[in-house]
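Hi, here's the filled form for the chain we discussed.

Project: internal
Contact: R.S.
Residues: 341
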Amino acid sequence: MKATICFSRLLSCFLILTASLSTTSVFAAASGGRTTLVGSAPSWATTANYAAAADVTTDVGFRVYLGWTDPAGAESLARAVSDPRSATYRKFLTPNQFRSRFSPAASDVAKVQNWLRSQGFSVIYSPQNNHYISAEGSVAQLAAAFGAQFGLYNVRGQTVRSPAADVSIPSSLAGVVNAVIRLDESYQFVETHHRVDAQAPPSPAGFTAIASTAPWAVKGATPDQIKSAYGISGYDGSGQTVAIIDAYASPTILHDVNQWSTNRGLPTMTPAQLVQVVPPGVYKRPQNPKQDPQGWYGEETLDVEAVHGMAPGAMPCTASTSRVSSPYQPCGSCFGFCGRL
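And the returned structure, exactly as it came back:
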């Protein structure tokens, strides 16, 4: 129940944002059978910042968003169920109820998918709510399909890709498509800021330190020590599902977690105990330096080991996404699946 409520709250925030997008006019007048998506080129893609033409062979992952059938109603609902003063506070719709009221029609999704395939793109994934279509293709295919040349621009000390002007779509899709995102690399400007506390106290007793041989090494604790610190000794998590959001999906995770468990005297996991929710195009993605999917395998395995160490009787459910030339984004539909287990 707690997982479902948490997911519902996340969905409410998501709806407010996407409903706002859906109600924003993004179209310019049609010309030559094409309709321009106003604002689809970032403000930094200027002549002054232009460095060179983009490599036409570069692979790009992007999303085509379709609007909700009643965007104003979806936003109103999201605000109402999130407002303690509302009579419908926390009276969330089920996923099926939401989809029946607000999801784009399956025929519209098929229409966009068929056009994308006709342009040579690989259609990767669409969620059950039909809100977007993930696709991949080369810069050359993007330029031909969206009617804009792509360049490299020197911005904030980085060289980033973008369409040189607002892109366009066939006018036959203007009433269906609301936006196309990830055609540019604005996400490269997202930064995380780290603060190191020079006055941090030493690690508490019981932590294992190897500072004498590796002063840079992280100090850690055993699963029993962590459970004791959180006051949950004696509990094993039986009957509980723990949702973990990660990127990609390690094909050897069960074997790796069980080897780690054996090394530490923990019970091993059964195949039915570990659930990996993976959209198409994510599982066993070929290794490449831009996305580094195999680099995520260790991260995902560590997350499952942490859960299993504290709750060996629980069912870890990993919801995986991809990093297709974009920042890591949680897979809301997959997380919802975990919440329903």
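Let me know if anything looks off before we file it.
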